[in-house]
Structure to design on (706 residues):
């Protein structure tokens, strides 16, 4: 079990690799799910990255930027860590990006701290991640960041009693806790908190329970896909809408399953940081460029998280090249106009400070498609869960 | 005897060769080694004793969480962590096995799945202890045997996992040839006859299941120490099913099958996923189909099948 010959071999091969590598090329490793039930995330990331490169070219500063994609499948921290190590040691990447699920991001924390590799999180939304390594930067959002403003907005609308219904898993519980804290701090009451089994698609008993309590609003947090569809359907059919119980959500009406929800979704309120219907030149340019490359592509929060992540990487490369700590330093406090609106990299939490919009689902009279119409900015905040 | 020594030597050589040939892929090679340990545990239970299970992840996850919690709260020593994992795996297997081993066939398979699901749900609920869906963080294993620190490139991790895998393999090779191992084989082949000669099937199956649980626990503990994070997915059905596929691919009942199947499955997975991150699942699917159709006994039966084919015999591989 002697390590010496191995070390020598390793040193020799690394020396070879260094001398043959193209000096001006900076590689970015993207760890994301590209296969299986969560493959959509990988697709969104890749489309956004390609769109950014089509718009802004493939060079930042003096450096040519290339992306290497690695498939992590789903929630798989073992694989995530091994892939990150492989990208760093074998592919010699200088930046890492991607990361859809919290455990996958947490698993690479010690690795990137040791290698001093700036790592841009495109999605994973648990506050605790960034505390794990000073090299994590996040261009998505955190759950408290959108749930707490939703609670405050609801109170300002005259809503005084809310029942929270969340899927019984980490993100759902985070959403419940931060909503409840913010709502009660304002003076409202959360009369009941229901935690629903993650895999259920029959919400009739749960929503009947909500209906019987007759709160002013129901706050929901569900993973996308069939549960959201079924929940909104039951919300309408059981007469909660007719009873005037307002629906409050966050990502439930996100673009990739919005059309499938159909007319049931019209009028649903959500608080979130990005709508593909955001009215700005940056957003229109982003949508047009993406549609040109991928006519069937759908733009949602995962796309914009990746798009802004790439922007951040370009800025870091332009400022600091391959120097990891200097790159992170350059990124902190950086502000720019994103397709979602103005954003700024918070120097303390390393998650972007951004607008949280209140949106209402409506049918676009021109295209006939459903969209999240932003009716106002309810908060401009960074990661509200950082100190919890 | 010489032949057995030769094959052990072969494994050692392969371990060394892999290390020298793929110095950049040590993290991936280490994952293969950990998976081999899990598949070996399945080979003992399924291949040798004929206990059909799709819930081996239950013991793997128990071992992983036990080793993780042990490292955080008690002692960071990796070898002690392995023991903690083994004990947790064995305990869970013994307790659940006490009920499960009274059943057979489909009932047994369903119950093994259920045990793993229950474990996953308990870990999900006990957020304060396990970290829930975020995963168990803060595992920082100490030096292996007080000598080797876990390094960035994964050299220590690789040799550590390799040593554990090799010892598990040796132990299983001994067990398989022991009277106990032979009686398990007997139960697998013909339970009625074993009853007739006065063997308590239930006890032996339970003992085998517990041993398998301990080994799966060791695999889980290894993964907790190498990744330094444990997630709920270590209890996942996918893990149990993939381990089973690897075992079937390699060939059940022979320990080499577990090694061969795992290495081939994971290597193909790795290469295919690296070349085409979107469609690699097709390649894996095709591989498994081909092996199941043409080599029902797994890849270890390939040389024999080829020999038969060369002689012009029919039923190659059967």
């Amino acid at each position: 079990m002697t390590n010496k010959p191995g070390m020598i071999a390793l040193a020799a091969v690394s020396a070879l690799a260094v001398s043959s590598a193209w000096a001006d090329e900076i590689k970015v490793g993207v760890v994301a799910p590209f296969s299986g039930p969560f493959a959509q995330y990988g697709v969104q990331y890749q489309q956004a990255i390609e769109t950014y490169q089509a718009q802004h070219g493939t060079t930042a500063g003096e450096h040519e930027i290339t992306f290497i994609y690695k498939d992590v499948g789903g929630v798989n921290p073992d694989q995530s860590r091994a892939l990150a190590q492989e990208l760093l040691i074998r592919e010699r990447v200088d930046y890492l990006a991607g990361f859809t699920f919290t455990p996958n991001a947490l698993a690479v924390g010690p690795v990137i701290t040791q290698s001093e590799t700036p790592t841009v999180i495109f999605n994973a939304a648990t506050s605790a991640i960034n505390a794990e390594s000073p090299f994590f930067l996040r261009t998505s959002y955190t759950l408290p960041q959108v749930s707490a403003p939703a609670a405050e907005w609801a109170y300002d609308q005259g809503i005084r009693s809310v029942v929270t219904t969340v899927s019984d898993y980490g993100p759902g519980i985070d959403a419940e806790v931060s909503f409840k804290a913010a709502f009660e701090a304002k003076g409202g009451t959360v009369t009941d908190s229901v935690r629903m089994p993650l895999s259920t698609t029959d919400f009739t008993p749960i929503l009947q329970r909500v209906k019987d309590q007759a709160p002013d609003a129901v706050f929901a947090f569900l993973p996308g896909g069939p549960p959201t569809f079924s929940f909104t359907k039951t919300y309408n059919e059981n007469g909660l809408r007719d009873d005037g119980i307002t629906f409050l959500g966050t990502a439930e009406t996100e673009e990739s399953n919005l059309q499938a929800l159909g007319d049931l979704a019209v009028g649903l309120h959500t608080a979130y940081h990005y709508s593909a219907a955001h009215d700005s030149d940056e957003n229109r340019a982003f949508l047009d460029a993406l549609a040109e490359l991928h006519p069937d592509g759908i733009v949602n929060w995962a796309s914009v998280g990746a798009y802004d992540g790439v922007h951040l990487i370009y800025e870091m490369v332009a400022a600091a090249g391959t120097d990891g700590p200097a790159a992170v330093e350059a990124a902190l406090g950086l502000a720019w106009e994103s397709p979602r609106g103005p954003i700024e990299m918070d120097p303390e939490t390393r998650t972007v400070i951004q607008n949280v919009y209140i949106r209402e689902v409506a049918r676009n009279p021109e295209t006939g498609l459903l969209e999240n119409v932003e009716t106002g900015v309810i908060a401009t905040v960074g990661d509200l869960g950082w100190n919890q | 005897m010489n032949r057995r020594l030769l094959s052990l030597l072969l494994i050692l050589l392969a371990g060394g060769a892999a290390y020298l040939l793929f110095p950049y892929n040590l993290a991936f090679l280490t994952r293969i080694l950990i998976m081999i340990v899990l598949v070996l545990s399945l080979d003992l239970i399924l291949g040798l004793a004929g206990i059909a299970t799709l819930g081996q992840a239950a013991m793997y996850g128990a071992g992983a969480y036990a080793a993780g919690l042990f490292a955080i709260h008690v002692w960071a020593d990796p070898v002690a962590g392995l023991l903690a994992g083994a004990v947790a795996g064995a305990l869970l297997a013994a307790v659940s096995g006490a009920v499960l081993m009274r059943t057979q066939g489909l009932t047994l398979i369903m119950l093994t799945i259920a045990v793993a699901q229950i474990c996953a749900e308990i870990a999900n609920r006990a957020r304060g202890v396990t970290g829930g869906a975020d995963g168990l963080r803060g595992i920082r294993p100490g030096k292996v045997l007080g000598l080797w620190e876990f390094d960035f490139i994964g050299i220590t991790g690789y040799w550590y996992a390799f040593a554990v895998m090799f010892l598990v393999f040796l132990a299983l090779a001994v067990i398989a040839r022991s009277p106990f191992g032979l009686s398990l084989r007997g139960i697998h082949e013909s339970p009625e006859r074993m009853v007739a000669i006065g063997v308590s099937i239930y006890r032996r199956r339970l003992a085998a299941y517990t041993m398998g649980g301990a080994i799966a626990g060791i695999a889980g503990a290894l993964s907790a120490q190498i990744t330094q994070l444990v997630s709920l997915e270590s209890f996942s059905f996918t893990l149990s099913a993939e381990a089973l596929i690897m075992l079937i691919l390699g060939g059940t009942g022979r320990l080499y099958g577990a090694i061969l199947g795992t290495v081939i499955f994971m290597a193909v997975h790795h290469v295919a996923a690296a070349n085409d991150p979107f469609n690699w699942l097709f390649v894996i699917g095709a591989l498994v189909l081909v092996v199941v159709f043409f080599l029902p006994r797994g890849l270890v039966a390939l040389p024999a099948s080829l020999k038969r084919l060369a002689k012009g015999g029919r039923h190659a591989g059967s």
In short: Chain A touches chain B at residues 1, 3, 5-7, 9-10, 13, 34-36, 39, 42, 69-71, 74-79, 81-83, 85-86, 89-90, 102-103, 106-107, 110-111, 114-115, 126, 128, 132, 168-171, 173 (CB under 8 Å). The longest strand of chain A covers residues 352-363. Confidence is low (pLDDT under 50) at residues 1-22 of chain A.
